[in-house]
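Annex B, item 7. Sequence and structure tokens for protein A, then protein B.
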Amino acid sequence: MKYENIILLLLVIVILVAPMIMYHGLGEDDGMFGGSDDKGADVIGELDHSYKPWFESIWEPPSGEVESLLFAVQAAIGAIIIGYAFGYWRGQSKKD
């Protein structure tokens, strides 16, 4: 049992470190981590030159990293809420 935990921990470390090594030095400028919304807007602009967006953003994050951070925080909050709901549901089913 103890060795299984060590193997799992090493596997998690490899999974976390491997992409950092593989994509070291490549960023949004190289087209590696761009979002699909950026590409979609470019394609729409190519297809219909008279297209105008419905609205503009209220606030534009200062960089892609900040935008990614905010997205990750939003995902973490959602995961916490879902995890709490499942935990609460599981606890209620065991109580009965």
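Protein B:
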Amino acid sequence: MQIDVTQPITLQQTIELAKRNNQELQQAQLTLERNQFVLQEALTAWYPSLSTSARIDYGQGARGQISAQATRDAQGQETVPPAQRTPNPGPSGSFTATLSLNYNLYTGGQRPAQVRLAEEQLNLQQLEVERLSEEIRLQVTLAYYNLQEADARVEISQAAVTESAQILRDTELLEQAGLGTRFEVLQQQVELANDSQGLTNALSDQRIARRQLAELLNLSQSAEITAADPIEIAGSWDLSLEQSLILSYKNRSELEQQLVQRKINKEQRTIALAAVRPQLSVFGQIDLLDDLNDTLGFGDGYSVGAQFQWNFFDGGAAMARAKQEDIDVAVAESSFANQRDQIRFEIEQAYSQLNSNEESIETASFALEVAEESLRLARLRFQAGVGTQTDVINQQTALTRARINQLTAILGYNRALANLQRAVSNLPDSKVTDIP
């Protein structure tokens, strides 16, 4: 999806765009592809290796030429009788070819351990891609809610400025009619200035929120986006706290990564110990030879055999490497327990915030209705001359606060829901229900 200079965008579009443009996720996916080829390479150890070589030689040796020269004196006369001369071989050529087959029958557990290691490394990278995807979803969702809040605060501030300006006009008219005072006009001018300053701050926060979201989406500096989704409750949570905890222990890639890392360390331990275990291999070879100077055909031969090797003492190096992996296994187990405790805290915190904001939404919605009606009545009383300007100002302030409280409650609920979804991760659609 292309982003124009200014374009509204939904939350779902934002998440999809972020996953497509995020460089860290792209690198993780490339590493995943690479690990797939690493596994293919490891699997080739189960097959024998077959190689061939061929060579053609043609030439004349320097020793034969020296022997021929030694049979003549300085004047070129032959000094050795023909019967006693060593024949001078002329140029000769040969062709040789070899076909070799090698296979490791037993590697002390190294070969299967290397295959399992490659499989677990692939699994670990798949979990890393999953973790990054979930993290990007959360970051973008929270940034989108920040933008929604910034947009809403601008609207609330603009409404406050409009209301204050209207009250100021009413106050000035009452002063001109002799029913108001200069002090009331000045008081309302101060109130309008304060509301205008609040609007300026809200506009600044809105620009920052837009830029922060654009940075997460990896968009150009000229791109500017706005939130297209309305501010409403994002959905309901159908799981209890205990169910959420149990599901998170099954779903979280971070926990699975620690278990996979533990398996990787165990396989590396096996590979380290294989260095001091017996190794057995078999081989076979076929040779072809042809002397190009004769009229005979090819000569052939073969050889088969087995090789046994056992480096049963290396000064303790293999055992030292194995002990290192034992410690890494213990570290992975400790990290698993620590990560599990952190996940439990995240879920308990988000679950508590979700319930708290759900109650706050009802209270804030009721307070907003009351504040709107109170301002309407205060304005009518003031215009009728039976109310005070202070009453109108107070009710206007209360209305602005009620609007902000409702906004904070709804977005607080949505943020808690997003954090809860991330804390559990990989949820089926039935666990989070959209609220129409």
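Comment on protein B: The chain has a mean pLDDT of 87.
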